[in-house]
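tool_call: predict_structure(chain=1)
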Amino acid sequence: MSTLVRTAVAEDVTSSAVGGDPRVVDLESATWRVGILPRSAGAIAYAKVLVDGVWRDLLRPTKRTQLDSPTACSSFPLIPWSNRVAEARLTFAGRTWQLPRTSPDGTAMHGSVLPFGFEVLERTRDSVRLRLDSRDVVGMGFPWAFSTELAVTLTADGLSVTTTVTNVDVEAFPAGFGHHPYFVRSLTPDCGEPQLEIPVTAGYALESAMAVGEAGPVPARADYSTLRPLGSRFVDDCLTGREPGPVRIVYPGARVDGSDVEVRITADDVYSHWVVYVPVQRAYFAVEPVTNANGGFALAEQGVPGTGVFVLEPGESKTGTFTVSL
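tool_result:
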């Protein structure tokens, strides 16, 4: 597969506006409409839900001018690591590699697959399966050969995303993965401030957005262990110590069958961490299911427990699924 081809087209993406756009794979169920962008690393272009007979954006919609920019999309995959690698230097088993610096802060950020397109393996009305093999592209920016698959499915329960990473190299390597969904703050014009609950017991002290040691108490600014308003304070934290139960987002005033809309995010145990990002004066926020802590490679190399980084032996795969449902 080749790297992305940039194009410039105006207007926001909606479920009706993207029809016929060759970049978008449109999926639909009775209550969901989702657009997938295979050539943009399998990013999500839009995700709409049916609220009292009206299709509403649940994830921030992507502008047509940004369909080829995964980080500007509704959600995008984080493979083969989540968040940042400090100074873009990856150390494993005593050896160090210099990765491409992909963030203005000088880190290697959000994995290495975002500049590349995925191959469509299968497609139905409500599902698509994509694949990328690092051996088929130039400039992957990761020291080892790997392949990855993304399976996106609309079910009776909601939107399901399955990520698989496979070691196709001749030696073991460390890895992780995740996804980066941006949820809207206002689901309907008359809904109130969203409320958020993330059932966890621990968080990380961060320096330059990266963990500096083993997880400790949840920082007060990011303590959504019980349902509370999202708030206007800036939050960018990595949480762990998952407890039973889903992440919950409640949109007061956005009604379905007389009740407030409640979004639930469930994830397999491999997603041992959540990243919560609440920017100031933005119409969106992020709750990211991820396997590893920010800066997890360095922590794991130091022997810090609970980083979520896993090591894949040659031929070994790791798979995880998360689901967003109403």
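agent: Helices lie at 296-301. Proceeding to next step.
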